[in-house]
Fold each of these.
Amino acid sequence: MSKLVICDHPLIQHKVTLIRDKKTSTKDFRELVDEVATLMAYEITRNLPLQTTTVETPVAKTEAKIVAGRMLGLIPILRAGLGMVEGVVKLIPGAKIGHVGLFRDPETMQPVEYYTKLPTDVQERQLIVIDPMLATGGSAIAAIDSLKKRDCTQIKLMCLIAAPEGVQAVQEAHPDVDIYLAALDERLDDHGYIVPGLGDAGDRLFGTK
């Protein structure tokens, strides 16, 4: 079974509380999501491989560590995933960015892929699929399915808030994909919203509601 990591740093938890508040403005919501994404990126990149190089400081030559091999690929799920990308890029400016677009079929309630654009070397990168909300897990599973069909094997999932139902669904569908969250909430309601959650992340990020 995949690893579930709750990023419980005090600054993350403080900012998530402000994100949840319905009185938080669109501007502040965007900024807070961006900041939490940066803080979470520290945790999700904790085990990146390192290699030794030689640098010359103003005082002497020394051996030091740098990240080994290729950098990361960020795969936001459109549209809400876009709100977390810049926060990660601030920390990892060399990351390449792909996109997966999904919508939910109103009759079957299943996610349908309508757009995918990935880096040409996506199979060689460690990928982070990004979506603020992990509710039923349907979109995350579909996005990961899409990457695996393209022979991607190094995949992690990064979300702000999740319901237990979504975590279980992703772990059952993709037991090799570790999940990183800022908060694990109580449950889903009858409409598929996370409780207590934060409402619709996309609408709050882009001011569309």
Note: The two ends are 38 Å apart (CA to CA).
Amino acid sequence: MPEAAAARRKLVEVRDLRMHFPIYAGLLRRRVGAVKAVDGVSFDIHEGETLGLVGESGCGKSTCGRALLRLYEPTSGSIRIDGREIATAGFDTLRTLRPIMQMVFQDPQASLNPRMTVGSIIGEPLDEHTRLSRREKQERIHELMDAVGLNRAFANRYPHEFSGGQRQSIGIARALALNPRFIVCDEPIAALDVSIQAQVVNLLEDLQARFGLTYLFISHDLSMVRHIADRVAVMDLGRIAELAPRDALYEAPLHPYSQALLSAVPEPDPNAETRRRRIILTGDVPSPANPPRGCNFSTRCPRVMPVCREVEPAFREVAPGHFTACHLHDPAISQTAGTAAAPEAKSTADTHVQQGA
């Protein structure tokens, strides 16, 4: 997987992306701080690849995806899509770039206009960005409905007449209207029944194979991410804790936060489930408005060392294609602090690990 990704061109390049939301207080509404929703994120996505972005609720996943498409104005950083800078592009330039980047939103009910028919919803991007005739636009709408498995006869129906999975298919068809190269899928299956989730994910995979699409797939469902993603980035409190090829991450996660997340994924085999060791995190979850000094995970990490509370770990490559931000994998620190920290880390870890129920 890493070799295949390396052979492909980088379509999306993100460097030190920050998205801080100001906090105002007092009678004069002065700025007193900021919520650091995304705080120095860097990664690449190759053509035709699916990068999974996972993490617990509130870690900044959706904010990161929206900032990539300039639905939010980034505080700082660089976003290059197909070699063109997005973060600082002006309105006119950004409008010309919209066709290459699209988004599938989390809630299909809220993201579709209830006063518009399905045909009008899917055709709206064509009205804004193309000069197709009425007949050509109608043909394109029918092609898109065929692509996502919707009956053409339903083009004059309204969103409330469809099921949740069908509404998400409408949103996907709208995203495909302008032949984009990059699509941000912001938890596209979170609002759907379990029986429908697999259908939507299979649809996304089929469309990727047919049209050569590149996805950023944002989700908290680690089992589904393992199915669809080529590489996975684990996000914690606005920063990326670990980035690795899918199989390497799921088989041998390096960051304690990744290990805790993956230990919570249920095993289909009942016998394996009873033998599984689950990591239970304790301690306070920090606020993104006031993150801790050093490592963001230091307040909950079962293997915390003194250096973790003082120095922010560097995001470094510790194996081919496998990156992590953890002092445990910093040779300079682990050699000097490992001997003293090992007994503390072991006893703390034993305290926070319990047998799977």
Note: Confidence is low (pLDDT under 50) at residues 338-357.
Amino acid sequence: MDGGQNFRVDPDRLWDTLMEMAKIGPGVAGGNNRQTLTDEDAEGRALFQTWCEAAGMSMGVDTMGNMFATREGTDPDALPVYMGSHLDTQPTGGKYDGVLGVLGGLEVIRTLNDLDIKTKHPIVIANWTNEEGTRFAPAMLSSGVFSGKHTQDWAYDRVDADGKRFGDELKRIGWVGDEEVGARKMHAMFELHIEQGPILEAENKDVGVVTHGQGLRWIECTVTGKESHTGSTPMAMRKNAGRGLALVTELVHEIAMKNQPNAVGAIGHIDVYPNSRNIIPGKVVFTVDMRTHLLDKLEAMVAEFNEKAPKLCEEIGVEFECHIVGQFNPPAFDETCVAAVRDAAEELGYTHMDIVSGAGHDACWINDVAPTAMIMCPCVDGLSHNEAEDISKEWAQAGTDVLLHAVLNTAEIVE
């Protein structure tokens, strides 16, 4: 695309569209509760389809409920350029997580229509089903099926807290499509998303150019000691599993800090047994979450943990065992697509920096089957998965302007 063409999206129209979608499934504190495969999700999908059809797009839906709105290109043999993210939210979600990527894509199409711009490649907006994974675990479920990470039968059998099956609920809300999942081929895909972290705001940058996603290892650990009375057991004779947890917690922190930058580690879920005020814990089961964007670094972090954690527990007379219960390797996004994002930010004069995505996104799975990149915009205080999640209209515009130009550079304007 000629560098002199300074196309911009309509920030007011984009913002109004975001606020209109936010009316569906309102939360109790200003955000959204539009969990996947609920009636609210169905309503949001219908509104999105209405908007897409009004913009001259055709809608396709696959058997996982993934939605694909297509703007035709001039070359019938050219593979489409995709944009998109997700419309489902956390139970106490914000208005922008995922939604900005879908409705930002819609604003890109509306802007192309306004300017009467044609492209060689078709352009498609995707709404991926069940990105959040709150109601039906795991996260990124449908993009995972699309990219071959999961089978559709396995996905259909996921159940929520009430025992309802994913496949049954997808049928109930009327969004089982007829397309085979994963049959679509992509020229490239771009996902616009809020950062969900504090880095861009702290660095006063308009745009994050996402070079990598983080790899992840979830390590479930069990520390076993001996239950005994907290008042009558001498300190030197205790086998306190809770103390083992404390030592391992500090070890996880030390390993993450030693591997900066872009490495994190923490212990989230913890079960203490018997969990009584006056009984020394005899067993603690907990999960270590380690993440970084370099595979060799991630594997070294896990190896150090596996070496040191048992020794720490042995020294205090308790037993330690662990195994990996969740994992994926860090994706490195396509260099050409990443360059298209960076070039677009520079062309438009937006401040930007390279960044690693701290969360999982649909783009992380799609990256395995198509050239992919992500664009991030700041969010206030890095807050997300919270009804207080907030962004500015200016941040939304900057990210969507960059999306527009990255997509146009990839889809090729027809003069």
Note: The radius of gyration is 23 Å.
